[in-house]
Amino acid sequence: MRHFAWRCRDSEETRRFHEDLPGLPLVPVMESGHVPSTGGHGTGMHIFFQMRDQMRDRSHIAFFGLGDGAAALPSPDTPAWVNRIALRVDSVAELRAAKAQLAEQQTADATAAWMRAL
């Protein structure tokens, strides 16, 4: 299995984004415990999403949710425009629909957070 992994602030938010917008299926999740790649003990969750690739090489995008609500901090030596991932979409209409759906979800999340704070 090939994958690249980043730290995420919130595993559920990350799952919702990657499954709902680009439609990447969530594949087996590794929860806290033994880390096979290092033999050590890890905390949090490691989540994988199957990429929709033409070569069928089983590539994934992955995230570590450490359960502390902290996001990864960018390196001060690296310009912000360097840290990104580019994914191909089938059409501009698909991209616009995904952006609109993301804006809707962010509004719903902000409203829910505001309601919880009352």
Strand content: 25-35%
Annotation field: number of helices: 2
SS class:
alpha+beta
Can you give the helix content as a percent range? Answer: 25-40%
**Helix and strand element order:** EHEEEH
| Low-pLDDT runs | none
Major beta sheet, specifics? Answer: 4 strands, mixed
Would you give an account of this structure?
The protein is an alpha+beta fold and 118 residues long. 31% of the residues lie in helices and 28% in strands. The chain contains 2 helices and 4 strands. It has helices at 11-20, 92-117; strands at 2-8, 26-34, 41-50, 59-65. The chain has a 4-stranded mixed beta sheet. A hairpin with an 8-residue loop joins strand 3 and strand 4. The model has no long low-confidence stretch (mean pLDDT 79).
Describe the structure in brief.
The protein has helices at 11-20, 92-117; strands at residues 2-8, 26-34, 41-50, 59-65.
Question: How are the secondary structure elements laid out?
Answer:
Elements: E1 2-8, H1 11-20, E2 26-34, E3 41-50, E4 59-65, H2 92-117
Parallel strand pairs: 1-4
Antiparallel strand pairs: 2-3, 3-4
